[in-house]
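Anyone opening a protein record will find just a pair of labelled lines. A complete record is shown below as an example:
=====
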Amino acid sequence: MASEEELRDLRQEIAKTTGKIVHLIATRNDLARKVGDVKRRASFPIEDPKVEEALVKEVVEECDREGVDRQVGLKVLSVLLSEGKRVQGLQGKQPQLITPMMMAAKAAQLQAAGRKLVRLDVGEPDFRPPEAVVKACSDALYGFKTHYTQTRGVPELVTALRKYLERRYNYSTTEGQVMSTPGGRFGIFMALSTVVKEGEGAIIVEPNWPAYKEILQQIGGRAATVPTTMEEGWEPSVEAVKAAIRPNTRAIILSYPANPTGKIIAPAKFKEILGVANDAKLTVISDEIYGDYSYTPCPTILQGGADRFILTASFSKTWAMTGFRVGYSVSSEELITKMMKIQSLVMTSVPEFIQYGAIKALDSDAEVHDNARRMKDRIDLAAREFDKIGGLEYAKPDGAMYFFPQARKPDFDSSAFAMKLLEEKGVSIAPGTGFGNYPRCFRISLGNSDETIVEGIRKIGELVG
């Protein structure tokens, strides 16, 4: 009986302590509202990364002093930060960013209503997939290869991927180090979900694909950004990467050639950044989806230098297989196993018949070389056309399939410009604010015919003046 009374008393103490925590949250919310009032009156920025960084450091140090697991403290802080922003009433005051997906949806809506548009917003090549891929998928369908498969992929695809990595990168893997994924986007989601927990964060070099931030937000992670500028050739500094590391940073995302700039970082600097990541015990997530659209030497994580990494890649761009939704990841057996658990839970596997198409893609070298050559020609074509527009400047892409020009006017609003261009000229682009704090920039995709690209850029020039 004594033990029951002791247990009851302890539970009552826990309940009282929980009540005190709730009371402290209410007190914190009152303070957050006052902070919001001050921000509104003084027009201060909505977010202050340095303040958040100091909070993270303080929580980690307090956890260490009190013997509390850091991960628990960071989770609590993440909830408190989100709640603080909510009660400040400033979230709704932020200008809505027009992302590439939003622009694509708007353009598709106009097209459905009968409007003829020049689509320069969608990051999708207009090339056809290799005939061998289409035939393999067809044969697999008629052969009733329409079942669940191992999450990693059918053995034939796993073997083909390992041979491809050996041939393409001189990189040897075990079966446990590779897996097929339902496209590159889901590969990134699994990679971040595996190495970044709620309250932790990852470093993103901007401008960059908005999905990285969106995925981090979805899993309760936080993004620490390293901004770059066109004037500096979209080149990140090693010092800025070091400065972005916080006590809760767990990963850095590198993606070269980059979307939207087409930037390829020098291999030597890439290695330097890997060294910084190793020193901080970060996992390097290397998104190499545009690797074959490289026109200067492009580093790959498979060349070595990272103690802990996850490579994600896709068949979408190189082999023009966007709608197939198939990609692959390479990492340690430990991390691939964790990623496979997520894929097994959510997707089971890539559809069986598509995997047989992917096997044929890996042997379609001629189509890859032809696609890369045609994309390089389009980069040169777009450069010649942008040279005719005095109101714009740009750093010529080293690869990928985009241009990210910048308006010379300091007050240029790319979101307003994009909407006006769509309505008045029938040309769709992606505003730069979707890729970071780049209101003077916008992205165009070169996934169209030469004639369409020229027509679209010239209409852009008519509006820019």
